[in-house]
Structure to design on (267 residues):
């Protein structure tokens, strides 16, 4: 969809094109309201953080935040990634990794003696 | 003077109504803003020297002027050394109106106050600076000089 929805400055609701009131204060600050209800509250100097239906209130009182947080935690687990380093090329590392434990123990005993 | 008298009657009928909200809400009442008509006090937002102008005639619209229209006004308050003096009759272009103006995309714009910029009867600016925000409705009305000098176009 190509239309751009703006957000109401008071309630946080989406303002579709054709709706809404734009109030420009004398200090050149622009306020977008989704309807005359929000505009009326704004002019009566009510705080959106005190009205339970606004987005600001919901954010402040942490409503519906668990669903959002759970969605974000689905990160992929790390896969073991092999790289060659100085001193041991990739084949050497892979061979050493694939050794059986008995073979490794025997090699360790031989080195000790 | 007949047309002036008619304007006056028209003005009284559509004067600004005060709608008071119920007392539990707040003490501040909200006004339904209407047109700029005779006796409307307007702020002057350029450096022509005038401070306040009272509208004596709206040059467009039977009920009054809106955003972007021209009016004729009488200077009520002026700075001591300016291009216009108190008592001058001047033309002005409304650059900010407290009445909502519809935009082509369907939204509405509304400013905090009523303000004009003083022009001559051809539409050329008298001042050299414009203060405060101006709407881009002026572009359609061909007041490009005002837009050029404005510090903030909305």
């Amino acid at each position: 969809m190509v239309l751009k929805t703006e957000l109401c400055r008071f309630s946080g609701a989406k303002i579709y094109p054709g709706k809404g009131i734009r109030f420009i204060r004398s200090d050149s600050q622009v306020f977008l309201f989704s309807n005359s209800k929000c505009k009326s509250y704004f002019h009566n100097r009510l705080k959106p953080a005190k009205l339970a239906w606004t987005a600001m209130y919901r954010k402040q009182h942490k409503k519906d935040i668990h669903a959002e947080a759970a969605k974000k935690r689905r990160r992929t687990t790390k896969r073991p990634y092999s790289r060659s380093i100085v001193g041991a090329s990739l084949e050497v590392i892979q061979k050493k990794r694939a050794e059986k434990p008995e073979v490794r123990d025997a090699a360790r005993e031989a080195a000790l003696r | 003077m007949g047309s002036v008298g008619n304007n006056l009657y028209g003005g009284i009928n559509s004067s600004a109504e005060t709608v008071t909200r119920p007392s539990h809400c707040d003490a501040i009442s909200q006004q339904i803003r209407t047109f700029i008509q005779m006796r409307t006090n307007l702020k002057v937002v350029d450096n022509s020297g005038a401070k306040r102008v009272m509208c004596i005639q709206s040059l467009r619209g039977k009920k009054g002027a809106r955003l972007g229209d021209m009016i004729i006004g009488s200077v009520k308050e002026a700075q001591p050394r300016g291009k216009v003096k108190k008592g001058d009759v001047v033309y002005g272009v409304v650059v900010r109106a407290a009445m909502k103006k519809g935009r082509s995309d369907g939204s509405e714009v509304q400013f905090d106050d009523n303000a004009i910029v003083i022009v001559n009867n051809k539409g050329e600016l008298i001042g050299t600076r414009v203060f405060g925000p101006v709407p881009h409705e002026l572009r359609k009305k061909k007041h490009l000089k005002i837009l050029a000098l404005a510090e903030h176009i909305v």
